[in-house]
Amino acid sequence: MQVTKSLAELAALVEGEVSGDPRVSIFALNDVNSAGPGEITFLTKAKSADKLAATRASAVLVPLDIGDVPLPAIKVKDPNLAAAIIHNLFYQRPRPCPGIHAGAHVGADCRIAPSVSVAPLAVIGSRVVLGEGVIVESGVVIGDDVEIGAETILEANAVVRHGCKIGSRVIVSSGAVIGSDGFGYATDSAGNHLKRPQVGCVVLEDDVEIGANSCVDRATFGTTRIGRGTKIDNLVQVGHNVEIGPSCIVVSLSGIAGSSKMGRHVVMGGQAAVADHVEVGDGVMIAGRSGVNGNVASGRVVAGFPAINYKEWLQAATAFSRIPQLLKDVRRLRKQFDDIADSINSKEEKDE
User: Fold this and answer.
1) Using H for helix, E for strand and C for coil, what is the string for the chain?
2) In the prediction, which pLDDT does 350 show?
3) N or C, which terminus of the chain has less Cβ within 10 Å?
4) pLDDT at residue 341 above 90?
């Protein structure tokens, strides 16, 4: 069922100020080039206002510092956030019909709410608990004794291993593995690697999202925990016994080694890495391709390998690009010094 809101209603939702006709009806959000009648678009920067000349949108979200615009608008502090709020209002993700498909396997003693949807070729172990509105897509494997909260979505071919606990409104994307064995071995005197049993579990708190083909390893003992509202991108590795706080962002191709702890609101850029047994404080930002091998205090911004203060890293990176020329300058100066020294020595020999 399509949702329609007036511009005034949307402005109240995002705490914005209407410019133009507040009665304009809106049923969707779209980008500035694709939006048409009945849709609202958005600009994140005032300098992009010239794009509005060609848009067919009925209204636009704009920053507070923009001037006059050629169509009805909502002025807000953060157009990107406002657009996300409105997009979620209008977007209706297709939901499959509730019920368990005949082609799915369900083990013994499970508790599955009537509104759950289980697609064909899904495999559910024994003693599994699925809350209201859970969606289990094709190819999903859920191990024994797993608990999954309401409105959680397990996309095609995701795997949740035995004993793991997943909160409500979680999304586990295709190919992700929750609760695989942690990477733990003991090495004997001959260099042979003896596997250490991984007997802990993984807990994903409410509103967590796990990207495609990411892995969250179970703890050796205890719990690997992903805090409420944390979003993990595709192709991320989270090691055993890691604890990630609430509302963190971990971008693709990053890795967090075993027993490390991250506070709340931490941001890890793409291809960044955190070594084992490291503590990263609240609000830390780790630039892409950085390597963190020691504790990082709350609020710091770090970059490079090993990760250092971001501004210091920028200076070092700038200096690094100048090294070839510096080497040429040093060789030239050394040659000049040698020529001067030879000249002085020759003069002294003549004077003798």
Assistant:
1) CCCCEEHHHHHHHHCCEEECCCCCEECEECCCCCCCCCEEEECCCHHHHHHHHCCCCCEEEEECCCCCCCCCEEEECCHHHHHHHHHHHHCCCCCCCCEECCCCEECCCCEECCCCEECCCCEECCCCEECCCCEECCCCEECCCCEECCCCEECCCCEECCCCEECCCCEECCCCEEEECCCCEEECCCCCEEECCCCCEEEECCCCEECCCCEEECCCCCEEEECCCCEECCCCEECCCCEECCCCEECCCCEECCCCEECCCCEECCCCEECCCCEECCCCEECCCCEECCCECCCCEEECCCCEEHHHHHHHHHHHHCHHHHHHHHHHHHHHHHHHHHHHHHHHHHHC
2) 67
3) N
4) no
Per-residue exposure over 273-308, b if at least 16 CB sit within 10 Å of its own CB, e if not: bbbeebebbebbbbbeebbbeeebeeebbbbbeebe
Average pLDDT estimate for 86-103? 94
- Gap between the Cα atoms of 264 and 223, Å rounded: 18
Q: What is the pLDDT of residues 286-326, one digit of tens each?
A: 999 999 999 999 999 999 999 999 999 999 988 988 899 98
Q: How far is CA 304 from CA 236, 260, 291, in A?
A: 19, 19, 6
Paired tokens of 24: 């304009």
